[in-house]
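Figure 6 in text form: structure in, sequence out.
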């Protein structure tokens, strides 16, 4: 009888583990709050039920779905592109920010601000067809290795977030990336990495033109910004590309503040729809990186202060995640 009882308990335990939709998340208040929210909005007849068509979840990318230190991964790609093109541009040896790029002085590049980063990124795109850019980005993602983490950049995705995306989709949510990163770069890998198709990616864009080349229709990328999908641009991007206000928004920095506000602040006194804001706080220097208020990459300061008054969940990476990266 005792053996049968132990076997039964083991069977129940195994079933419970198998049924856990977020196995890489440690049990605790954070995990419970996410599970409770999803249950509330998906329980038909319940006070918080939300129809499937309105179940929209938006996620930042850099520092939220994959790592972002010591520099944004798209910047690393753009820097490699600048180095590859340098022989055709001798003027870059004496022109900033390219001079610093060629000298491998990333600190000097960062010190020149976002304008310099944008210049580098646009040069990496300029005068290429969309297909040429996709091939270049895909080749880089398939080969380039992160300097500290020792794995390909495309493998520096967060296993707990992959589980959360799958869990949300299994419960009728449509998941979107809403990122300050380049929309064309994100679309190269988002579907394979996250299960998010290109049409569900919102990001910063540069201008493009259409033409026929030898009778073949092509899109030509231009060295000029079109839309910056960061900070206050994120709600605008959501409005223009998605057309529905999210039920859930997840970010990791002050660049996501306005997206979380747009998602969670009620429109009026009658608006009692359950909504959830989530911030990922990088607290794990051993397995990944630890940074917040003073970081030049992914600074989390104002949004962290606002989280408690808004009722946003703050994920403590060191405490809440049993695993960081996929094995």
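Output sequence:
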């Amino acid at each position: 009888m005792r053996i049968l009882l132990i076997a039964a308990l083991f069977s129940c335990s195994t079933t419970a583990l198998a049924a856990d939709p977020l196995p890489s998340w440690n049990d605790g208040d954070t995990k419970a709050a996410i599970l409770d929210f999803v249950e509330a909005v998906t329980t038909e007849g319940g006070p918080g039920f939300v129809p499937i068509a309105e179940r929209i979840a938006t996620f930042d990318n850099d520092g939220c779905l994959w790592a972002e230190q010591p520099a944004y991964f798209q910047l690393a790609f753009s820097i490699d592109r600048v180095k590859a093109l340098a022989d055709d541009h001798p003027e870059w040896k004496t022109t900033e920010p390219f001079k610093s790029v060629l000298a491998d002085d990333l600190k000097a590049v960062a010190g020149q601000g976002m304008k310099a980063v944008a210049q580098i990124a646009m040069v990496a795109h300029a005068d290429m067809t969309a297909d040429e850019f996709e091939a270049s980005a895909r080749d880089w993602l398939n080969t380039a290795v992160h300097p500290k983490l020792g794995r390909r950049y495309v493998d520096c995705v967060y296993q707990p977030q992959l589980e959360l995306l799958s869990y949300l989709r299994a419960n009728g949510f449509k998941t979107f990336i809403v990122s300050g990163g380049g929309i064309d770069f994100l679309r190269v890998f988002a579907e394979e990495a996250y299960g998010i198709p290109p049409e569900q990616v919102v990001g910063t864009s540069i201008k493009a033109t259409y033409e026929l080349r030898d009778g073949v229709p092509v899109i030509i990328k231009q060295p000029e910004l079109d839309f910056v999908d960061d900070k206050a641009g994120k709600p605008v991007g959501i409005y223009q590309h998605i057309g529905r206000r999210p039920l859930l928004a997840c970010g990791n920095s002050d660049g996501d503040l306005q997206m979380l506000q747009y998602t969670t602040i009620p429109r009026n006194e009658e608006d009692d729809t359950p909504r959830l804001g989530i911030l990922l706080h990088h607290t794990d220097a051993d397995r990944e990186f630890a940074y917040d208020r003073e970081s030049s990459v992914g600074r989390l300061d104002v949004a962290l202060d606002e989280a408690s008054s808004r009722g946003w969940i703050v994920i403590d990476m060191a405490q809440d995640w049993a695993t960081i990266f996929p094995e």
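Caption detail: The domain at 21-69+157-320 is CATH 3.40.50.1000 (Rossmann fold).
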